[in-house]
Amino acid sequence: MADLQTQNYIRRSATTLTPPSVRNHEQEVAKLIDVTRCIGCKACQSACMEWNNLRPEVGHFEGAYENPGDLAPSVWTLMRFEEYENDVGNLEWLIRKDGCMHCEDPGCLKACPAPGAIVQYANGIVDFMSDACIGCGYCLKGCPFDIPRINPVDHKSYKCTLCSDRVGVGLEPACVKACPTGAIMFGSKSDMKDWAGERIEDLKSRGFENAGLYDPPGVGGTHVMYVLHHADKPGIYSGLPENPTISKLVQFWKGLIKPIAIAGIAFAAVTAFVHWITVGPNDVEQNDEDEADRLLKKAEGS
Amino acid sequence: MKYPKANIVRYPTVTRVNHWITAGCFVLLVLSGLAMFHPMLFFLTELFGGGQWARAAHPWIGTILLLSYGGMIVQFWRDELFTWDDLQWSKSIAKVIVNEEEGVPEAPRFNAGQKLVFWAMAFLVPALFFSGLLIWEVYFSSYTTIEQQRYAMLIHSLCAIAAILVWITHVYSGIWIRGSVSAMMHGHVTPGWAFRHHRKWFRSLVATGSRGPVPNPTSRTEHKS
Q1: Are residues A134 and A269 in the same domain?
Q2: Which among A59, A56, A47, A50 has a CA at the least distance from the CA of A74?
Q3: I need a labelling partner for A236 at 20 to 30 A (CA). Which of A46, A146, B32, B40 fits?
Q4: What ipTM was predicted for this assembly?
Q5: Nearest alpha-carbon partner for A103 in A121, A122, A126
Q6: CA-nearest residue of chain B to A137?
Q7: Any A CB within 8 A of B175 CB
Q8: Are residues A210 and A269 in the same domain?
Q9: What pTM did the predictor assign?
Q10: Cβ contact (<8 Å) for A265 and B36?
């Protein structure tokens, strides 16, 4: 939402030109969500609402701890609660803070048809530029995590900005600031990976042998990463995708067929023109009129 | 509408109005659709008042096109049915392309090429409409899964490209065969035009004393037998 300098864009939706690329020394940032430390207090949700001035409509109790029930145009982050029964029959309460993963290779940006409606900054943050958004919903089809939501009132797509406006002036995202247990960390991506490494070692030493970092390579890694106690089964965390990638259908639609279609259409038009200047129009000749006249007269006579 | 006395009616007024509603919708759909298909053509959205307007208008125009093309089908389907003669005509396509008239079988009201265009669109227009319905974000996005919408998106794009290619063929044929555009604009052709391009149709009109666009019904069965 906050437009940082345009020289900071490393990717821009629906653009065939190379974005400004001389500033290439910026550090990539990442948010690290340590699911194993989360207590489900929803302070991050409140902080997100507060900083971003979001006030989703108060809904109804649906028999679950999720509140509200799903991500929405004005719900950019959401604690998802899962009651998981592990191998030895114990209950594990898995709480995952859901929201935009800020993919290194963002599917939303790839699918977006509106120039500059989705950008990625050099620091890795993927941001929606609402003034350019046309409300087509292509970003929903591009996203492997089911994150963006279209607001039916203004027909714009919304999602977590990773508080790009805060990050741009050297602050951490609001959710990070609010987290009381240190389950949400923010810093350079390499620092966050180092930190996660230490934490995972600790978890392994305490019996979580499959503890690991969720930084899925299928989308080039993400700028929001999770530490999971069961990194071998991300699906148990309220359907976190096993190996997220941009759908093949979207890749085909936004990749190969775009140039082929335009070339095909241009070829058809050029072929028609070449025919026009080489073969030329098919005109009715006097002979045709005479023959037709003869047939008409003959019919009248009979 | 009054037609010149010596001329033959090819397309009655209802048909022409129907055709140009269809054509207008199609052109608007191509412009707004291509704008959302390729970044280099996004500027076309300005013709509609910007991206939001192009996105909002496109499906409504598509709905009108579906209804309008339905009208075309109702009016034309009888004369668009394929026959074995179409195969013979198709075999001489090499001659047709270079304006060679000798040895090309006589064509009925519509030749095999025109029939192909008609039926291609009769397939593509509904395919575009129904795949488009799935990706009509505002009203219908909640009825399908995102994966289904991805398929719809791809099908919609592929069908649109096919339809544009068919449309280019259709438009150029109209320009190439002089008198066709005028026939669709004003409804009538000269007897010579009918004789040259659709001789079988012309013969059937002459035989039944019809001024077009179809042979007089009483004599129609007689002509067939």
Answers
A1: no
A2: A56
A3: A46
A4: 0.92
A5: A126
A6: B137
A7: yes
A8: no
A9: 0.93
A10: no
